[in-house]
Design brief:
alpha/beta; five-stranded parallel β-sheet; two-stranded antiparallel sheet; 11 strands; about 45% helix
Length: about 375
């Protein structure tokens, strides 16, 4: 749809940023998902828009939205270089939702989270060796970004924003069908959502886009009952996965899909994946980075970490100063906190040491 005239108007009225969907690094993949000929057209239009932005000395950003699917998962590691070559500064990794085209091509597009993580790790590893880093905004659960940034700590490019991991449905965000029917989100109109409506959590009263234009949407029983579900349901408090998560406040699992659940399967899988990685760290010995602000020189002339004044942090710093390995640090701390499960202690100590490495305090 982009023409020079439309580009000029976008720039004139400062429409910023501009999101453009491109679901494949190569033509075959993108055209399969989006339709024949779309890859060449989108790349051409991105180039046209970029030229107009430069011509008018505008600060408008172009952001590419890449919806991850089973079909394009192997192209995830190629995205950073692809972005740089295309002149794009930011790419959003979007999750696949059960709506529209994804329902028609369900068998080809839906993925296993374990397969996606393999490709995300390859991408994160690639980012560590790049000079011109594009910004990668992940719409996967924030916990995935934390893990990737802890493990592949040299890159500072992968980020998450809570707006993509919190439920916005029934407020600033709506899902519109081609016939104009409006839903709080895609989840209320997929199989699970329709079943939830039948059970009485949502009252289905047809809402049309014209209602929204006429400011009547607030009167819709459908939207109102969905928002009441969000406000009154304690589904998030019931989720065992969320209770133990460090980014509880930045993330809202879907109130439709997780209303009767106790776990978030993708995050439970990640917890086990993290533990496998932490076990590989156990024999390593953290060494002090003498360029860190946390470092002092003791009376013997050796570099030591300045001790926190209290808590488990102080005990970990003490163990690092004794040149102990991950396993020795965990063992020493477990004697004091014998009531805490070993896996929990291992997770806490490893994540703390990984964070210290991210901030340049220690190396290993």
């Amino acid at each position: 749809m982009l023409t020079k005239e439309i580009c000029f108007n976008l720039i004139k009225y400062n429409v910023n940023p501009i999101f453009i969907s491109l679901d494949g690094v190569n033509k075959e993949t993108s055209d399969f998902i989006r339709g024949q000929g779309t890859y060449d057209l989108v790349c051409k239009n991105i180039n046209l828009l970029q030229n107009e932005i430069k011509k008018h000395k505008s600060a408008i950003e172009i952001i590419v939205s890449f919806t991850v699917t089973n079909r394009n998962k192997s192209e995830i590691p190629l995205l950073p270089d692809f972005c740089v070559n295309l002149g794009i500064d930011q790419i959003n990794l979007s999750c696949l939702y059960e709506a529209g085209n994804s329902c028609d091509k369900k068998n080809y597009l839906q993925y296993e989270i374990s397969d996606i993580m393999i490709e995300l790790e390859k991408m994160a590893d690639r980012l560590q060796n790049m000079k011109n880093l594009p910004k990668i905004i992940s719409e996967f659960r924030p916990r995935f970004t934390l893990y990737l940034n802890r493990r592949y700590y040299k890159q500072k490019s992968i980020k998450y924003t809570p707006v993509y991991s919190r439920c916005l449905a029934g407020g600033p965000l709506f899902y519109m069908e081609a016939n104009g029917d409006l839903h709080p989100c895609h989840a209320t109109n997929n199989t699970k959502g329709k079943q939830t409506q039948k059970e009485g959590y949502l009252k289905y009263v047809k809402t049309n886009i014209l209602d929204y234009i006429n400011k009547e949407i607030e009167k819709s029983q459908y939207i109102a009952s969905f928002n009441m579900l969000k406000k009154t349901s304690n589904y998030k408090q019931k989720l065992k996965t969320c209770k133990e998560c460090a980014v509880f406040n930045d993330c809202d699992p879907c109130p439709i899909n997780f209303y009767d659940s106790f776990i978030v399967p993708e995050c439970e899988w990640l917890k086990q994946h993290e533990l496998q990685y932490y076990k590989k760290l156990l024999s390593l010995v953290p060494t002090i980075n003498n360029k860190s602000n946390y470092v002092a020189i003791n009376s013997s002339g050796n570099y030591v970490l300045r001790m926190p004044t209290k808590g488990i942090s102080q005990e970990i710093f003490s163990q690092i100063n004794c040149h102990n390995s991950f396993q020795q640090i965990i063992k020493a701390i477990s004697t004091k906190y014998s009531d805490v499960p070993y896996d929990t202690l291992m997770r806490d100590v490893c994540e703390y040491l990984l964070d210290l490495r991210c901030y340049g305090v220690v190396n290993f």
